[in-house]
Amino acid sequence: MLLAFLQIVTFLVYLNANVINVGKTGAALPVLAIHVIFSMVIFGFLWLQRNLYVRLHFFLFLMLISWIFARVIIDLGDLDYLKSITIATSGGIILFYILGALLGASYQGLLLGVNGVQLCKIMLVLFFCLLAWMQYNFQQRLHPTLFFLTGGNDGYQRSGDFLSISFILASFLYLLVALRFMGRTWNPLGKALWLGIYLASVGMGITGAQLLGSNSATAVIAGVSLITVVMVLTVTERLLLKTYLKQRLSLPWSKCLIKRIAFISLSSLLLFALVFVLAIQAGDFDISTTRLFGFGAGTNTSLVSRYEILVSTGVDQLSYAPFLGNINVAYLTTGNSGRTLHSLFPYVMANLGLVGFIIVIFLFVCIFMQLIKESKHKGEGSFRSYRFSVVALYSFLIFLYLVLFANLSVGISWAVLWFALGFISRPLGFKN
Questions:
Q1: Domain-embedded: residue 245
Q2: More confident residue, 136 or 280
Q3: Angle between helices 93-112 and 156-180 in degrees, nearest 10
């Protein structure tokens, strides 16, 4: 358990260091190396004590990586580009998938362990402190007229992705803390305290994302936090737990659960909108100076540019090599390699063809089916099995949101998606 704590802490510290050092690459690499060592030691211990099993979707992932390797070598012959999208710390699909998978195994241990909640609380406090440290550092680099940092250059997306990953991990830790309150004496003050810490972290995270200029991180933090708060307020109701223990609650498609989620979601959205408007007015803040509103343009320029590329070049790129794809399709059809389709499924179709698209669809469907199956887990009909089912349902919603968002604004080498995929699906597991 202590090793898992150190593993997660070093990862959060590494991510935070890279967020703060926006515009630079390779910050805190020794911390990443220590994290990897902890991860491998934990994996080795588990392997010695239990039987290792490999899920089907891990082989689908390997098929996808093999196809990416083939397309890059055939179409570009550029090994540096291949490295950047597979193992580099900026957007390596393999690297973040493995990091997520190893952390997923540790999180599973915290979920099933007896004393894991205390460690989760410490890590949440640490995460809050890291975000406060981020805010302090960002205040030293504020742009004189815009809500933006100076000296960020073009590295803001990398830092934004790292901020998103750290927030996803912290949200899973908070869910575990919230679930543990159900098994103990009713303590509304304690629940309010941890909800307050989490919401304060959300505020600092969204503020930091906009200071970085990362609309992607802003959307991830906002979406994940909404799902998290709604799930926590819903599944921690004692009446819901009692209904489950009496075998009268059928997860995940219970009408009672769906109605509660819908009601709390709507209420949370309205409350968030109200607080946001009041905060803007009270602080006399010019929201047009943020990247979300194009730094004064009045529109989200990043979304507009993505839509323009899709509309003007989408048909040409999708029809260039529909079956096998071409990783260099943007340059071959537009003369500009930067005009790629910033939408996951169209990008896969254009660059990896129907072959790559089928692999990706099967990969995602396999993971979704696994999570749905786990959310139906009855076990011994206990509080422990309830936690297991809730985490699976929460994982399903988080991954669904990330896949939907990826189809609005990113290509295939989005580190956030691949970390979440490895973390949530746990492709390499252990059983007694």
A1: yes
A2: 136
A3: 10
